[in-house]
Amino acid sequence: MKNELKEPIVTLKTGDGTVSEATQRYFDICMEKLGLVPNVLQAYAFDDAKLRAFTDMYNDLMLGDSTITKLEREMIAVVVSSVNRCFYCLTAHGAAVRELSGDPVLGELMVMNYRAANLDAKTRAMLDFAVLLTESPEAVEDEDRDALREAGFDDRTIWDIASVAAFFNMTNRVAAASDMRPNAEYHGMAR
Fold it and tell me: Phi, psi (5° rounding) for residue 161?
């Protein structure tokens, strides 16, 4: 039996089945830059304010100024999503890791077990912290933050690491609750 992917969740649109002009403009930009409108954005299309809040937070955390690189942020997204077994984010952000790193094997290792990847000590410390924050947030102590500082992260960067991890913990749960499925295009990207 062929393993076929379920269709993505039904897009929650306005009552008449359309999206606002502002949302359509944003989706047009996505099509131009990405070649697709990510299903996560389509899922938020039912409410412009919620879509804007989601995209503003995403863009700030993933594209804004930080001493952690875009690749490192994507690695955090994948490692958190791996702990949470979020099919949507593992697929979408695994593709981003493959693309940004130019290394399909690294992308797959991040999805399956980042500990098996050949990572420098600083990156490993960052990902270990993201996993701890995901699995046992109540267990985070000064020694965990000190380990990050010893690895070379300042307090602002620790904030950024924690914020990216927290954001993906939230989105993983929304994706699970709504049965959100990744766009089929992500599966073949950067391989």
Answer: -60, -50
- What is 70-188's CATH number, 1.10.760.10, 3.40.50.150, 1.20.1290.10, 3.40.50.2000? 1.20.1290.10
CB-CB neighbours of 28 under 10 Å: 11
Q: Is the pLDDT of residue 20 over 90?
A: no
Q: Which two tokens stand for residue 20?
A: 């606002």
For the record, the structure tokens of 55 come out as 């995209």
10: pLDDT strictly greater than 50 = no
Domain boundaries, the chain: 21-63, 70-188
* Confidence at residue 141, expressed as pLDDT on a 0 to 100 scale: 97
Q: Tell me the CATH architecture of domain 21-63.
A: Up-down Bundle (1.20)
CA dihedral 128, 133, 134, 135 (to 10 degrees): 80
d(CA 48, CA 64): 22
Confidence (pTM): 0.89
Confidence of residue 14 (pLDDT cuts 50, 70, 90): very low
Q: What is d(CA 191, CA 171) in angstroms, rounded to the nearest whole number? A: 25
Residue 75's nearest CA partner among 46, 113, 48 is: 113
The pLDDT tens digits for 143-163 are 999 999 999 999 999 999 999
